[in-house]
């Protein structure tokens, strides 16, 4: 039993551990620092890691689909590769859509949010009846509940609390 027998397994395990650690560090950093919109500074979007990952997955799907169209591909496998490539490409693009649509904005009068399907929700600061914090898989989420039942939920880092705090100070001094 020489080095050749256990070295590939050890190398595979080391690569797996390195990838898992890198993904964990990358995802923690990405979630803690949301992306600010350049034109509207109070609007916060999802992290930039989401569209980058989606575009990488889409590129892999396009490559798999294109390989399935080559003359070297077996006809049965080629067709399956083309179908799988299209499915992977569309799945990657589905990761890009939330980045383009989802945001939470703190305006001088209230919170405004848009969901992945484009639905806008707004809660005026005066209509906030409850602000709840909850932990989900170690990440802090904030639920803002309005008087009419509207709920805006998101990661704690998605909220810009400055305008809300200024509104509270202004109403408390009246």
Please provide a written account of the structure.
With 174 residues, this protein is of the alpha+beta class. It has two domains: 3-101, no CATH class; 103-172, Pleckstrin-homology domain (PH domain)/Phosphotyrosine-binding domain (PTB) (PH-domain like). Helices cover 50% and strands 24% of the residues. The protein has helices at 3-32, 49-67, 75-101, 162-172; strands spanning 35-36, 43-45, 103-106, 110-114, 120-124, 128-136, 139-146, 151-155. The strands form two sheets. Strands 1-2-3-4-5 form a five-stranded antiparallel beta sheet. A three-stranded antiparallel beta sheet has the order 6-7-8, with no helix packed on it. A hairpin with a 2-residue loop joins strand 6 (128-136) and strand 7 (139-146). Helix 2 packs antiparallel against helix 3 (75-101). The longest helix has 30 residues, at 3-32. It is elongated and about 75 Å long.
Features:
single chain, 174 residues, alpha+beta, PH-domain like, five-stranded antiparallel beta sheet, three-stranded antiparallel beta sheet, 4 helices, transmembrane, transmembrane helix, PH domain-containing protein
Low-confidence spans: pLDDT under 50, at least 5 residues?
A: none
Structural class: alpha+beta
- Give the strand order of the largest sheet, numbering strands 1, 2, ... along the chain: 1-2-3-4-5
How many distinct beta strands? 8
State the distance separating the first and last CA atoms: 82 Å
Tell me the helix content: 40-55%
Strand/helix succession? HEEHHEEEEEEH
Query: If you compute it from the alpha carbons, what radius of gyration comes out, rounded to the nearest whole angstrom?
Result: 23 Å
Number of domains: 2
Query: Helical stretch count?
Result: 4
% residues in beta strands? 15-25%
Mean pLDDT: 80
């Amino acid at each position: 039993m020489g080095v050749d027998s256990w070295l590939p397994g050890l190398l595979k395990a080391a690569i797996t551990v390195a990838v898992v650690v890198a993904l964990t560090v990358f995802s923690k950093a990405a979630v803690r620092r949301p992306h600010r919109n350049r034109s509207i500074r109070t609007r916060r979007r999802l992290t930039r890691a989401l569209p980058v990952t989606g575009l990488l997955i889409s590129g892999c799907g396009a490559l798999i689909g294109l390989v399935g169209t080559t003359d070297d591909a077996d006809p049965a496998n080629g067709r399956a590769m083309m179908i799988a490539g299209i499915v992977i490409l569309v799945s990657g693009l589905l990761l890009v859509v939330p980045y383009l649509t989802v945001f939470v904005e703190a305006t001088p009068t209230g919170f405004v949010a848009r969901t992945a399907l484009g639905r806008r929700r707004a809660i005026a600061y005066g209509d906030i009846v409850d602000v709840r914090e909850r932990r989900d898989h170690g990440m802090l989420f904030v639920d803002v509940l309005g008087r009419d039942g509207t709920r805006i939920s998101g990661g704690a880092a998605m909220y810009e609390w400055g305008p809300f705090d200024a509104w509270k100070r202004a109403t408390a001094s009246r």
